[in-house]
Amino acid sequence: AQSVAQPEDQVNVAEGNPLTVKCTYSVSGNPYLFWYVQYPNRGLQFLLKYITGDNLVKGSYGFEAEFNKSQTSFHLKKPSALVSDSALYFCAVRVYGQNFVFGPGTRLSVLP
Amino acid sequence: NAGVTQTPKFQVLKTGQSMTLQCAQDMNHEYMSWYRQDPGMGLRLIHYSVGAGITDQGEVPNGYNVSRSTTEDFPLRLLSAAPSQTSVYFCASSYAFAGSYEQYFGPGTRLTVT
């Protein structure tokens, strides 16, 4: 069975500092990994995905994520956080022929 | 493109009432799905469809029905509402079930059952 863990319920970071939102996963097979962001009272928006190839994936709004197969992790990063990055972030995984599985979410607060 | 649309945005039901949450997409996506979002639990899959006429159950299907008569529409029916169904419901679509395609989400329906 597939599963996704986001070990931090909440991440606080000062504006301008780098941010990391952690995600680990467990699957049988090769994973496709995704990050989504949810702003208040909105649906989820796709940020980026890893399919294969380069372990560093770049996405929308300056976000990037690093796939680490040995640690089964897919952490979301941004070099310099903005107050407008404050939102709920979801990691998701799927394998070929299976449905998406989402993590519980991490609330990011960027403090001015 | 409007993307994925959902109606209504908000709904209050009494226990035992039934209703249908509407979902439509204009991207000609094969795969559509319904999730519920509850605090601390992420998104849980209720039902999904890999194409018109084909539906299947997800992780938490009890109390919900779906049908997919067209590619565009994927309504979710609550048969007899219960307070445990108070949640935010999201519809999503993707180009295909197989492969690495991301999902596109609707704005959600906030449902309260009293």
Protein model, in words:
The complex is a heterodimer of chains A (112) and B (114). With 112 residues, chain A is mainly beta. In chain A, 0% of the residues lie in helices and 54% in strands. In chain A, the strands form three sheets. In chain A, strands 2, 5, 6, 10, 11 and 12 form a six-stranded mixed β-sheet that branches. A four-stranded antiparallel β-sheet of chain A has the order 3-9-8-7, with no helix packed on it. A two-stranded antiparallel sheet of chain A has the order 1-4. In chain A, β7 and β8 (64-68) form a beta hairpin. The mean pLDDT of chain A is 94. Chain B starts with a strand and ends with a strand. In chain B, strands 2, 4, 5, 6, 9, 10 and 11 form a seven-stranded mixed β-sheet that branches. A four-stranded antiparallel β-sheet of chain B has the order 1-3-8-7, with no helix packed on it. The interface between A and B is medium-sized, with 23 and 24 residues.
